[in-house]
Amino acid sequence: MIFMRIKACVCCIFVGFIFVMPMPAISGFFSSEKDNNEASDVISAEDQADAITGGGASGEEKSSGEAESFVMDLSDKVLSIINDTNTSDEEKEKKLREFFVNSVDTEWMGKFVLGRYFRTASEEQKQQYMTLYHDYLIWSYVPRFKEYKGGSFYIIKVKEESSGNDAIVQTEMRGIKESPNIRVDYMMHRNGDGNFKIIDIVGEGISLITTQRSDFGGMISQKGLDYFISKLESKVNSLKKKSA
Amino acid sequence: MLKKGFTLISMLALLPVNSFAEDDIGKSAEEVPAVIIAAQEVDADPLEGFNRGVYKFNETVDNILLEPVARTYRAAIPKWGRERVGNALNNLSSPVVFANSVLQGDVDQSFATFWRFVINSTLGVGGLFDVAKEAGLKPRKEDFGQTIGKYGVGSGPYIVLPFIGPTTARDAVGKAVDSISNPFNYLTPAAVVTINTVDVVDEREGLLDTIDEIEETSFDPYSTIRSAYIQHRANLIRNGEGSSEKENWGSK
Predict the structure, then answer these.
(1) What is the CATH T-level fold of the domain A4-24+36-233, as seen in this structure?
(2) CB B210 within 8 A of CB A21
(3) DSSP string for A194-210
(4) Could you tell me what percentage of chain A is helix, strand and coil, using 3-state DSSP and rounding each to the nearest 5?
(5) Considering only CB atoms, which chain A residues are within 8 Å of B58?
(6) pLDDT band at B72; cut points 50, 70, 90
(7) Is the pLDDT of residue B8 over 70?
(8) How far apart are CA B56 and CA A110, in angstroms?
(9) Looking at the predicted structure, is the pLDDT value of residue A94 above 90?
(10) Cβ-proximal residues to A27 (8 Å cutoff; 6+ apart), any chain
(11) Mutant choice from A2, A5, A130, A140 vs B, greatest count of B C-beta within 10 A
């Protein structure tokens, strides 16, 4: 018995929660160190200005560079907002929320996350849920961007599916406070209107929507959809209050 | 005792894992893009009833014992000291990491782990300082669960074990093999107990903020943890999608 390493009952599984929590909170859990020269593109607070003035990079051509330039463009804007010393935190968050809404397909994500329960939900439940999920995602995710302050963003690799409709952009956040480098992959899907939108954020191999689906499904299978929706509503309200 | 444990675990390994036949997304949503990880496996949980019971038990133990100890540790020992402890523990795990790197046929990582142990045990003052990392020899976590996973052994059912926490049939076997093969587990009983106790406290301290956050944001923490555990292990086995840069510990 003495040989058995008695591990913490809550153990190391939490490590991947970087999308559920502020990145620096998991400091020490991940440090996937990459040599700097592996990164093909670098945006940091210092050279942001160049990146933004040269912002024509987000071309209209639907070539293989489209997914990459989409993420580059997005991160330029996000980092410039975060590191702008002239705007108040409130204003920053408002701007970030706008960007978030425009670049993330919350509708698709909401459907995926509810999974099989979406099919059996009534129209009213669907409507309630979709509105709440949209707010839940925004209000739980956007305030965390503050934690990226001072960080730099590196694109490691861009993989596009042969169809050209799906893409993965592998990135790494470096230099956030004292945390180790964090690998974050963005899954993107081309919308009906032909534009790329983010449909999943994968932190160190753990997918946001997959984990949310397990989380939501766990409660719904035990307590039912109506109960879950009411809980979602109170969570959204408390998140808004916390942020205000 | 150990033998009994093995029998139980190997029996569990034989249990069929429910594969969910129904498509998760349903017909109402658009087709799942190819980039999304196939996700049925994270919600397969044939032992859910048992697991939830043990989870509750572990939560209680954590609340009354482990978490308070971890908070005291954080409050009493400055970060610098805790980093030294974390480094020393990592150094002590080197034999297991080395053995598994060899078994996985990972020559680079085997050499890196060997030299990390030699350098950190000497220049790094018994592992207190990770000087090998500064020299470019990066730490990585390898265990027997990952090794057999790499050779195609499926995870088996998800199991929550008392005190030990979330695992799968495969990873439980892996943990037992690693414990038996770890030379540091053959020191005096007092030393073994001390090392393992410090290890648990160190690990829990590192998780304080994370767990607080889960308790605040999650709707069903049990399911959230199961899903994340399974995804995390799969990612470790892939070494972060084939890249050899993966590590999940090091600078604590």
Answers:
(1) Nuclear Transport Factor 2; Chain: A, (3.10.450)
(2) yes
(3) S-EEEEEEEETTEEHHH
(4) 55, 15, 30
(5) 9-10
(6) very high
(7) no
(8) 29
(9) no
(10) A177, A178, A179, A180
(11) A5
| pLDDT tens column, B147-159 | 999 999 999 999 9
The CA distance from B69 to B207, in Å, is: 13
pLDDT at B37 (0 to 100) = 53
What does the pLDDT read at residue B229? 93
% of chain A with per-residue pLDDT over 90: 27
Domain edges within chain A? 4-24+36-233
- Chain A residues lying within 8 Å of B206, measured CB to CB: 28-29
Query: B36 contacts in A (CB within 8 Å)?
Result: 112, 187, 199-200, 207, 209-210
DSSP result, B77-104: S-HHHHHHHHHHHHHHTHHHHHHHHHHT
Calculate mean pLDDT across residues B25-50. Answer: 66
Kindly tell me the number of DSSP H helices and DSSP E strands found in chain B: 12, 2
Q: Greater confidence, A146 or B48? A: B48
Residue with token string 């390898």:
B142
Taking the C-alpha atoms of residue A126 and residue A119, their distance in angstroms, rounded to an integer, is 9
A120: which residues sit within 8 A by CB, 6+ positions away? Answer: none
